[in-house]
From TrEMBL:
GO terms for molecular function: hydrolase activity. Residues 21-251 form the AB hydrolase-1 domain. This is Alpha/beta hydrolase. InterPro entries: AB_hydrolase, AB_hydrolase_1. Pfam families: Abhydrolase_1 (PF00561). It comes from Paenarthrobacter aromaticivorans. Keywords: Hydrolase.
Length: 272
């Protein structure tokens, strides 16, 4: 099981294909295991790197951390790219992964060639989305008192939808359930989407992220997620927006993503 040590933790990772680096940042709850099919498809378009984030699945920590902060995930992603001599990369992030991708572009712009944001969880950009996220945070914390390993299910049923959750096989349910300690650690930490102190980025902050960005939203997702993508589309300087069918679990190797990756591979990194 390949691992690389960065910032005091051993991160599980996989590499598929060659060419322009493509970094996949899974959401919360989640794991690189959910990217298996997408990684194969992306490997036909570049060097796809996926990994389990700090505290999740094969990068689990013993004992589990009490808190996880956004900046830790951002620093880990940057260090992983450096350790693998990969970058600048096309960074793909769904949900919380999209939030981390934005943090990476903000703090380590030299590591980022372009962004693919699949309904990123920057809830603070919209008042209604922020209110929804704070309500979800309270429901998750309430559920954790009686079912600590049911936290992941609560988050996914709310964001993905009941049908999407129920369609997953039992072994994936079990794997995601065991990421619940990491989910709670993020909620107790700083900067993540369901933290008590989530990341806030104003229009000036977003305008400073001068990288090509593809923003995908799904027709069947909660309305608040489309509010976020709409606001981001207007705030990030170089954006393309695509509405896809289905729910929040958007395929990271959607045809629109593959086309974007191909175009970015042919574009000099110094274009901005």
């Amino acid at each position: 099981m390949p691992k690389v040590s960065v910032n005091g933790v051993a991160l599980y990772y996989e590499e598929h294909g060659e060419g322009v680096p493509i970094l996949g940042l899974h959401g919360t709850p989640g794991s690189a295991a959910l990217w298996a099919g997408a990684a194969v498809a992306l490997s036909n378009h570049g060097r796809c790197i996926i990994f389990d984030r700090r505290g999740f699945h094969r990068s689990a920590l013993v004992p589990p951390p009490s808190t996880l902060d956004l900046i830790q995930h951002v620093d880990d992603a940057a260090a992983l790219l450096a350790a693998l001599h990969a970058g600048p990369a096309v960074v793909i992030g769904p949900g919380t992964g999209g939030l981390i991708a934005l943090g990476l572009a903000r703090h380590f712009p030299d590591k980022v060639k372009a962004l693919v944001l699949l309904e990123p969880a920057l809830f603070t950009i919209d008042p209604d989305a922020d209110t929804w996220a704070r309500g979800l945070r309270q429901r998750v914390l309430g559920a954790s008192r009686d079912r600590p390993f049911g936290v992941a299910e609560v988050v996914m049923r709310e964001a993905w939808g009941v049908q999407s959750w129920d369609a997953l096989p039992g072994d994936i349910h079990e794997m995601l359930a065991h990421t619940s300690p990491a989910v709670l650690a993020e909620i107790r930490g700083r900067g993540l989407d369901l933290s008590d102190s989530p990341l806030e980025m104003n229009e000036d902050d977003l305008a400073d992220i001068r990288r090509p960005s593809l923003i995908l939203s799904a027709e069947g997702s909660p309305h608040v997620l489309r509010l976020i993508t709409s606001r981001l589309s207007g705030a990030l300087p170089y954006t393309e927006s695509v509405l896809v069918s289905g729910g929040h679990l958007i395929n990271p190797a959607h045809p629109a993503v593959l086309d974007f990756v191909d175009r970015m591979a042919a574009t000099p990194s110094s274009w901005v």
